[in-house]
User: What shape does this take?
Amino acid sequence: MPDNPQQTITIHAEPESPSSPLIPNLGEVITTDDVDTKGKFAKYVNWCRVAHYLQIHANGWLFHVVPAPDGGHVWKAPNGTAYVVGCFSSPEGVRTPDFPQAVMDHRNDPVAFEKVTARDFTDTHRRCLCTCAASVFGIAWQLWAKEDVENPHREVKATAENKTPPEIVPELPAEEQKLSDEQRQECIKDIAELPEAKQKTLVAAFRKAFDLGPREKIAVKIQAIKHMQWIKNNLPK
Assistant: This one.
């Protein structure tokens, strides 16, 4: 890209798609247990935890760093500083809009394009994953908006009072009855808290038990009493 200070950054056209995918809303996924603090005030969610939640709640969605016009993955701004461009693709291959992220040093100052190191790039890749995920899926949006994050250890009495009982359908057998939102979230939480190896084993067994494809989202498919019973019976001790 020419070093013309008056030149604007051109956003390249997105590929057309016959239909837009349903983007998962992960705005309420994180809790205070997920939030770490750097220094005295800076709060953040570790990029590994963000990636982990995406695997659970947005299975099949992949993060990409868009190649720069001149090669590589680091883009050059008109003033000579560097940035990367991230996006997600859906399981159907539909790509989300470009999301730029500046390459910054430890003081959050922009880094000159010619001075970008491998460490600068990898750090920015992880940062872009998190900021792009917040933009697309809403995950950890509260940290940028300075909103309170849900406390998972709130009083049991208050939680019980807010529970919505599931609707009973007389025509359906007991195991086919729909779960309440609270029951679904409890099942998802049980899976999310497993170590990675045990989680993968349980998810694979769940797919096999209920004849699910490899790209179908487990969190979406947990809907009935039979799903909750299966998870409780097969949850590793």
Q: What stands out?
A: The chain is about 35% helix and 10% strand. The radius of gyration is 21 Å.
